[in-house]
Amino acid sequence: MKDIIDLHTHTIASGHAYNTIQEMINAAVAKGIRLLGITEHAPKMPGTCHEFYFTNLHIIPREQQGIRVLFGAELNILNPAGEVDLPERITEKLDFCIASLHPPCMAPGTLQENTSAVINAMKHPHVRIIGHPDDGRFPLDYEAVVAAAKEYGVILEINNASLAPDAFRVGARENDQRMLKLCEKYQVPVLMGSDAHVTFALGVHDAAAELIAETGISPELVLNDSVEKVLEYLKKH
Predict the structure, then answer these.
(1) CA 75 to CA 139: how far, in whole Å?
(2) How far apart are CA 27 and CA 237, in angstroms?
(3) S-S: 105 plus which of 25, 44, 59, 95, CB 3.0-4.6 Å?
(4) pTM, 2 dp
(5) Which sign does the torsion angle of CA 51, 125, 66, 160 carry?
(6) Dist CA 237 CA 169 (whole Å)
(7) Looking at the domain 5-236, which fold is it?
(8) 3-class secondary structure for the chain?
(9) Exposure of 38 by Cβ count < 10 A (0-12 exposed, 13-18 middle, 19+ buried)?
(10) What is the rounded distance in angstroms from the CA atom of residue 125 to the CA atom of residue 127?
(11) In sequence order, what are the residues at sequence separation of 6 or more whose Cβ sits closer than 8 angstroms to the Cβ of residue 25?
(12) Domain residue spans in the chain?
């Protein structure tokens, strides 16, 4: 499969990443990425940027060096009600949003609490992707999550960083396998994301691609091969 999209990356603005916007764009061009998403951590993540940062992203061109660049946010899910840490008056001006569970922003709860948090976040009008739903520190009812993704038109991420040998997320491989089988059942699209915090990791989806191939999910459910398909999906939903 042609892999030309990476919508989950971070720059130095996130506080624990190591490259600038321009360095990430240069790396994307060099690696053949055609659609790049830069999604800084939203304000509840320790060390990240203030919400003013997100209000000013409109000044950056979306076409650079022959590639399309989208500027969004990785929102932090804060509670079982699915509340996130940027107001809608800001998220409506972003190109798209990822919503994710992070221990610094929400303590892991019960299966029911974590599942409710993710599903309720999907109802947010600007959340287009659920980031790393594979983290076993936040047990999820994957059938309920995948069914909700189908209902609300949300993409589920296969996060390459979660599958790295030194990953700190728990049980990601087994959780991704379970989720992918359910995505096939419900015909829910997935997107491989690097979660890159440095240029070397940008566009690297090797572990995610290997797991997808092992699972045997239908290729048309993996969105990384078509800029047009992803943009239309984000616009439509």
Answers:
(1) 19
(2) 29
(3) 44
(4) 0.97
(5) positive
(6) 29
(7) TIM Barrel (3.20.20)
(8) CCCCEECCECCHHHCCCCCCHHHHHHHHHHCCCCEEEEEEECCCCCCCCCHHHHHCHHHCCCEECCEEEEEEEEEEECCCCCCECCCHHHHCCCCCEEEECCCCCCCCCCHHHHHHHHHHHHCCCCEEEECCCCCCCCCCCHHHHHHHHHHHCCEEEEEHHHHCCCCCCCCHHHHHHHHHHHHHHHCCCEEEECCECCHHHCCCCHHHHHHHHHHCCCHHHEHHHCHHHHHHHHHHC
(9) buried
(10) 6
(11) 36, 64, 65, 67, 69
(12) 5-236
Indicate the burial class of 220 (C-beta count within 10 angstroms; 0-12, 13-18, 19 or more): exposed
The tokens of 201 are what?
A: 């990791």
Task: Quickly tell me which residue has 């809608």 as its tokens.
Answer: 88
Please check the confidence at residue 237 and state whether its pLDDT lies above 60.
no
Distances (CA, A) of 174 to 62, 129, 155, 220: 37, 20, 19, 22
